[in-house]
């Protein structure tokens, strides 16, 4: 990190003190981030985060008083909501999907390596989504089927151009902008332009919501 760079301010929300301590040690060992807030449940997190601004919240899903899904939804109402990275014990977890729908930018397993956690924080802070492609497909194939009518396929197709639909599908498979550019013979700048257009046309927040919408609309079952 350069001398002028501002460290990423992180909050850790988990009811297990051992988990909080371990994640804090990992984060505080990095030059470009530090832990500014710790909380033992969602309610305590909201109280602290209303008074202290952070960039990224590392959020447990299952906690007493207020769970991570509810806390994530409440955080989105803040004037400048932080990014949320959910930690979960199970990669196929209804709560993880609910957290993504509530506004989380991604999730990791609690058993993830320390280097994966700090990289995920960096990615989420920069605006990227953090979900492994293999996990994305298994999670959404299992859990989104029941919500398939919530977003009509024709509405999505009508809103997007043919090329935007190609990019939309590629994002839903977990491909990066660089990978999409290579597969579709486009420049990365052009891909980024398409991504911004997709988000605007479909009124979506980020790439995670693109993934969810792609599966809910049924488009990925056709792919």
Automatic annotation (TrEMBL):
Keyword DNA-binding appears in the UniProt entry: yes
Gene Ontology biological-process annotations: phosphorelay signal transduction system; regulation of DNA-templated transcription
Stored InterPro entries: CheY-like_superfamily, NreC/VraR/RcsB-like_REC, Sig_transdc_resp-reg_C-effctor, Sig_transdc_resp-reg_receiver, Tscrpt_reg_LuxR_C, WalR-like
Gene3D superfamilies, alphabetized: 3.40.50.2300
Top-level taxon in the UniProt lineage: Bacteria
Keywords: DNA-binding, Phosphoprotein, Transcription, Transcription regulation
SUPFAM superfamilies per the UniProt record, alphabetical: C-terminal effector domain of the bipartite response regulators, CheY-like
Keyword Transcription: yes
Modified residues (4-aspartylphosphate): 60
Annotated PANTHER family: TRANSCRIPTIONAL REGULATORY PROTEIN NARL-RELATED (PTHR43214:SF24), TWO-COMPONENT RESPONSE REGULATOR (PTHR43214)
Protein name as annotated: LuxR family two component transcriptional regulator
Native source species: Antricoccus suffuscus
């Amino acid at each position: 990190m350069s001398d002028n760079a501002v460290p990423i301010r992180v909050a850790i929300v988990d009811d297990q003190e051992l988990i909080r301590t371990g994640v804090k040690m990992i984060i505080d060992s990095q030059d470009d981030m530090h832990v500014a807030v710790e909380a033992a449940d969602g309610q305590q997190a909201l109280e602290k985060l209303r008074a202290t601004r952070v960039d990224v919240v590392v959020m447990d899903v299952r906690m007493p008083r207020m769970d991570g899904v509810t806390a994530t939804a409440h955080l989105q109402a803040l004037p400048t909501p932080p990014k949320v990275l959910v930690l979960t014990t199970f990669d196929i977890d209804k709560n993880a999907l609910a957290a993504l729908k509530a506004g989380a930018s991604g999730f990791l397993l609690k058993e993830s390596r320390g280097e994966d956690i700090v990289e995920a924080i960096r990615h989420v802070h920069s605006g990227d989504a953090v979900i492994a492609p293999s996990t994305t497909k298994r999670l959404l194939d299992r859990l989104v089927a029941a919500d398939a009518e919530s977003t009509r396929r024709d509405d999505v197709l009508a809103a997007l151009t043919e090329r935007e639909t190609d990019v939309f599908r590629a994002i839903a498979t977990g491909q990066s902008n660089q990978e999409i550019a290579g597969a579709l013979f486009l420049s990365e700048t052009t891909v980024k332009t398409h991504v911004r257009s997709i988000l605007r046309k479909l009124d979506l927040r980020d790439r995670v919501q693109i993934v969810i919408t792609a599966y809910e609309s049924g488009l990925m079952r056709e792919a």
